[in-house]
């Protein structure tokens, strides 16, 4: 097995131990499975959930064993208010969602699985982004390894699981400073306007090859600087700094303390904001899934937006617009991704901010699904326009549907099994530039014989004409030559108007199917006018019967 270089090994230790899942770096033991007791019940702030939302995942023994139908009871205590409880039931994926929670309120969730009571740690609701947590039943008893560690000078005792070291924005590591003593770290904290923040909490995490994680806390002074002293300068000990500013968790990259002087962190501040979409790209977490639904192709999409700059992308009211195929129908936002909404007949809009992603964080995900009509054909062309570049999107097709995919640069990957044990085919496309399209030809769809549909339409038209002429014949029998001519003229006018409206509507639909631009307001106007023609025919029929 290839051995990691020393620097890479330390970075891996800190990233794993402090940032992602609170796992400890124990040399060779790093390859062992994670201890789930370190993960269960810990809050993990994330950027891909809307502000004021919490996702609680409930599982049995392992995270993959989702526990559906479990009632989760959350207690929310806002400042100056009495505690209130909210209940939610886990879905098939084991997740229970709580939304529209007030920022700063204390949150704790409890669930009972097979008679075992499980609960999260209490935590505050962040002002930006949401929180994920996991409750797992039937875990082995006993303390989690490395859960305890003694505090040292300059800090307090560490928290179990080190949830305080989760963050969503990564900034540069501190740099050596020869003007301060060795083992000393200075951290400057400012607000979004550049003003120093006094009496503000700053956390420093330490991880080493002995498997222990230690946490040190200090408050900033009047100039907004927190000082940590007597930190280890041993080169097998790593550190990172985390603080929360204006509701956003900000952390440094991992670093070692210098041996010939102290260290100084550049000003820790909320990132600047931008509405420039060029800072975004779609990472390898993006994917499409295709399934068959009678006369429709089901399309599920996950677009994972990544931001590799040091600024927050904020699209404001315009958000991020994602054009979708013209013929799509039955649009639905899926799962617990960012909030998305349909822009009728055009696409979807995601209003979530995209903070700097950093090396340890997942992109902000838009999850959605819709149907594409097949019109009875055994193949169709799927096209998805992208305003931002996409990195090697994944395409998933359950083998049960026996679909065949063709696309430029399409690569077939090794088959996998889904959670139910069913075989799925995986494909990978090449990189898509900004303004480019994902274009896939999908064949093997169930072909529907259209003859029956055509006959039904023709018969319906003949019956309609026969009924109209029957009405006219009855009227002619009751009236004279003048009435006959009057009714004939009126019928001809209605028929001609109907044919013209139908002809224009069919032309619009054909243009839509071929991917051309269609005036949706004109289409709605045509449908309304056709309804009016039929109402006139009905009213005329009723009037003639009444006169008879």
Note the topology.
Elements: H1 6-20, E1 44-46, E2 54-60, E3 71-77, E4 84-89, E5 95-98, E6 106-113, E7 116-119, E8 123-124, E9 130-137, E10 169-171, E11 175-177, E12 185-189, E13 201-208, E14 213-219, E15 225-228, E16 237-245, E17 248-252, E18 262-268, E19 273-274, E20 280-282, E21 287-293, E22 296-307, E23 312-313, E24 320-323, E25 329-333, E26 340-343, E27 347-350, E28 364-373, E29 379-385, E30 394-398, E31 404-406, E32 411-412, E33 416-417, E34 423-428, E35 437-443, H2 451-478, H3 481-513, H4 520-547
Describe this entry's structure for a reader:
- With 548 residues, the protein is of the alpha+beta class.
- It has four domains: 1-24 and 145-270, Immunoglobulin-like; 41-138, Sandwich (Immunoglobulin-like); 277-443, Immunoglobulin-like (Sandwich), CATH 2.60.40; 451-547.
- 19% of the residues lie in helices and 34% in strands.
- The strands form eight sheets. Strands 20, 21, 22, 25, 28, 30, 32, 33 and 34 form a nine-stranded mixed beta sheet that branches.
- β13 (201-208) and β14 (213-219) form a beta hairpin.
- The longest helix has 33 residues, at 481-513.
- The relative contact order is 0.09.
């Amino acid at each position: 097995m290839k051995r990691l270089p020393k620097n890479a090994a330390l970075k891996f230790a800190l990233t794993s131990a402090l940032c992602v899942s609170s796992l400890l770096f124990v040399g060779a033991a790093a390859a062992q499975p994670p201890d789930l007791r370190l993960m269960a019940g810990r809050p993990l702030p994330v950027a891909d959930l809307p502000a004021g939302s919490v996702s609680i995942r409930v599982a049995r023994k392992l995270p993959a064993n989702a526990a559906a139908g479990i009632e989760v009871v959350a207690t929310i205590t806002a400042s100056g208010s009495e505690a209130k409880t909210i209940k939610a039931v886990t879905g098939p994926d084991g997740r229970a969602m709580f939304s529209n929670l007030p920022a700063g309120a204390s949150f704790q969730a409890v669930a009972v699985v097979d008679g075992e009571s499980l609960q999260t740690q209490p935590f505050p609701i962040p002002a930006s982004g949401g929180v994920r947590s996991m409750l797992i039943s039937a875990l082995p008893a006993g303390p989690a390894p490395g859960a305890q560690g003694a505090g040292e000078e300059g800090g307090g005792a560490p928290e179990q699981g080190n949830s305080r070291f989760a963050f969503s924005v990564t900034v540069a590591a501190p740099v050596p400073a020869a003007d301060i003593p060795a083992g000393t770290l200075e951290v400057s904290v400012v607000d979004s306007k550049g003003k120093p923040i006094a009496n503000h909490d700053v956390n420093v995490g330490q991880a080493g090859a002995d498997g222990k994680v230690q946490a040190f806390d200090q408050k900033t002074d009047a100039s907004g600087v927190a000082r940590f002293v007597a930190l280890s300068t041993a080169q097998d000990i790593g550190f990172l700094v985390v603080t929360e500013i204006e509701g956003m968790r900000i952390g440094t990259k991992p670093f070692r303390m210098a041996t010939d002087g102290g260290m100084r962190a550049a000003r820790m501040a909320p990132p600047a904001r931008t509405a420039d979409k060029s800072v975004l790209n779609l990472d390898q977490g993006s994917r499409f899934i295709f399934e068959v639904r009678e006369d429709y192709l089901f399309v599920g999409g996950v677009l994972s937006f990544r931001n590799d700059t040091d600024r927050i992308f904020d699209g404001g009211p315009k958000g991020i617009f994602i054009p979708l195929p013209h013929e799509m129908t039955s649009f639905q936002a899926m799962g617990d991704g960012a909030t998305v909404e349909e822009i009728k007949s055009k696409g979807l809009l995601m209003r979530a901010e995209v903070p700097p992603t950093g090396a340890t964080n997942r992109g902000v995900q838009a999850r959605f699904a819709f149907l594409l009509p097949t019109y009875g054909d055994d193949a169709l062309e799927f096209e998805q326009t992208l305003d931002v570049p996409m990195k090697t999107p994944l395409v998933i097709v359950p083998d049960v549907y026996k679909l065949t995919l063709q696309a430029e640069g399409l690569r077939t990957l090794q088959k996998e099994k889904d959670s139910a044990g069913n075989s799925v085919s995986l494909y990978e496309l090449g990189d898509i530039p900004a303004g480019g399209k994902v274009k896939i030809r999908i064949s093997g769809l169930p072909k529907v014989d259209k003859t029956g549909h055509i006959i039904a339409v023709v018969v319906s038209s003949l019956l309609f004409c026969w009924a109209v002429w029957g009405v006219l014949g009855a009227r002619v029998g009751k009236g004279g030559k003048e009435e006959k001519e009057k009714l004939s003229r009126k019928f001809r006018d209605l028929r001609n108007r109907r044919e013209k409206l139908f002809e224009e509507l069919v032309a619009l639909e054909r243009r839509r199917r071929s991917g051309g631009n269609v005036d949706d307001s004109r289409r709605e106007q045509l449908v309304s006018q056709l309804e009016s023609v039929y109402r006139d025919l009905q009213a005329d029929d009723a009037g003639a019967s009444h006169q008879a």
